[in-house]
Amino acid sequence: MKKLAPIVALSLMVAAFSSCKKDYTCSCKSGTGTPFTYQFNKVKKKDAKAACDTWNNTYQISGGSCSL
Description:
The protein is an alpha+beta fold. The chain has a domain at 21-67. The chain has helices spanning 4-17, 45-60, and strands spanning 22-29, 35-43, 65-67.
């Protein structure tokens, strides 16, 4: 049991300090219905969502939309 405690503690520390960075795809359609995708590599979900929301605002001007 004493040998297991440091391993568990180290595993928890690694999990706590590692960020969850993944690849995300923002799928968009222009006002004419033409599909576009934007790939965000190794970013946090909130950062990918913020960037995709920015593209959404751009495409909404012409009647399109984007979503993560």
